[in-house]
Specification:
115 residues, four-stranded antiparallel beta sheet, two-stranded antiparallel ribbon, 3 helices, 21% helix, RBD_domain_sf, nucleic acid binding, RRM domain-containing protein, Nucleotide-bd_a/b_plait_sf
Amino acid sequence: MAEPAPSKPQDSKAPVTKCLHIGGLTPSITLADLNKRLATFGTMGGDISGLGKVDAVGRTKNFVHVTLKTNVGQLAKCMNVLSGSTWKGANLKLSEAKPDYTERYGPSSLPPDPA
């Protein structure tokens, strides 16, 4: 059985845009707070979802999805520094967000359009 080839190290300066899932937020954390907190690692893009939304039972959701434009090195640093840290009373949990349904499964798994 052949061993997998070692992956090439990525250039830490290579630009990357990633959607991040940030969990464990408290209702007091605002978009401006998140923008300030992530500014040292990159620029937050326009795609932000979940912040301030209310779930079916009336509680504020404790997560947000943000798009972060940065480089590979800064993204790794962001994940290592912020994940598991306590900030404004919140125990942050950072991970790469799962892709959208249509991106994960592609157009071939969508139901056909009724004619």
